[in-house]
Amino acid sequence: MAVSEPRQAATVLLLRDGTPGLEVYLLRRTRGMPFAGGMTAYPGGGVDPRDADVETAWTGPTPAQWAEAFGCDERTARELVCAAVRETFEEAGVLLAGSADGTDVVPDVSGDDWEAQRQALLARDLSLAELLADRGLALRSDLLRPFAHWVTPPVEPRRYDTKFFAAALPVGQEARHVTGEADEASWLTPSAALAELRGGTRPMLPPTIHTLGQLEPFADVAAVLAGSPPESLQPISPTFEDQPDGRWAVLPDGTRIRLVVPLPA
Fold first, then answer.
1. Is 71 left (phi over 0), alpha (psi -120 to 50) or beta?
2. pLDDT tens column, 131-172
3. How far apart are CA 24 and CA 30, in angstroms?
4. Which of 67, 77, 105, 117 is spaced 20 to 30 Å from 20 by Cα?
5. Helices first, then strands: H and E counts in the chain
6. What is the pLDDT of residues 50-96, one digit of tens each?
7. What 3-state DSSP class applies to 91?
8. b/e sequence 157-189, b meaning 16+ C-beta within 10 Å
9. How is the chain split among helix, strand and coil, in percent rounded to 5?
10. Which candidate, 85, 103, 102, places its Cα nearest to that of 94?
């Protein structure tokens, strides 16, 4: 059987300090989606060709520095960071951008004019570089941190090579349930999300389960952004085992993740 080449993708763990502690923004993908329908996931998606646009105004760590962090070439690194910023705006209404000198972050992107540009991004009538140029803004790559790297196993027909980023919700902005690819959007602590998983009410794919577990020990956003574990950037591609008590994902280091949904009797 031919093995499909994984598509480059970016996913963002958007974080805030809530009343119960560290919270992460989660979307429940609509049932019937061709990939991960009904599953809870983070904002994110595949790289668009225009994400490589070298005209994109940029402040913070350079594409070369991101390439070193993710072990990829500079063009791919540029695409991934731009995709992370673009997808966060498209799916959560949050824009990780600010002044060209890197001194501030755009405080509010919820007006009708912003919404028209978000819709144009979704329709691919507008590129991220064009949106930023029109607003006199620059992408703020310093607001992102590398967090994890997952690759869909070769046995799957639809494959992604996904880089996971962590980012704090910018002051003055609010995440909004604006994506048509999800029927629910929630701020939850990692522990609460995993409790719903175990209760059978919030199914997730292994990367989401594992990264929520990685977030659990952190007390607040600052602690997460201070540095994710270096080993989290090693590519992870799980294998799967069917056992009497359900299906398990097995990671290269031997970690086992129960996928909760039991096998039919």
1. left
2. 999 999 999 999 999 999 999 888 777 889 999 999 999 999
3. 19
4. 105
5. 7, 13
6. 999 999 999 999 999 999 999 999 999 999 999 999 999 999 999 99
7. helix
8. eebbbbbbbbbbbbeebebeebbebbeebbbbb
9. 30, 30, 40
10. 85
Residue linked to tokens 């994400």:
51
Specify whether the CB–CB gap between 241 and 153 falls below 8 A: no
Q: Which residue has the tokens 């090579």?
A: 161
- Which residues, other chains included, contact 144 with Cβ-Cβ below 8 Å and sequence gap of 6+? 12, 60, 81, 84, 85, 96, 165, 166, 167
The rounded distance, in Å, linking the Cα atoms of 112 and 125 is 17
Which SS3 state, helix, strand or coil, does residue 160 take?
strand
How do residues 92-135 score in pLDDT, each as one tens digit? 999 999 998 888 999 999 899 999 999 999 999 999 999 999 99
DSSP assignment letter at 230? G
- To which H or E segment does residue 112 belong? helix 112-122
DSSP per position, 40-75: EE-SEEEPPGGGG-TTS-EESS-HHHHHHHHTS-HH
Pick the CATH number of 7-233 from 3.60.20.10, 3.30.1330.60, 3.20.20.70, 3.90.79.10: 3.90.79.10
What are the sequence ranges of the domains in the chain? 7-233
Please state, in angstroms and rounded to a whole number, the distance separating the CA atoms of residues 171 and 16: 10
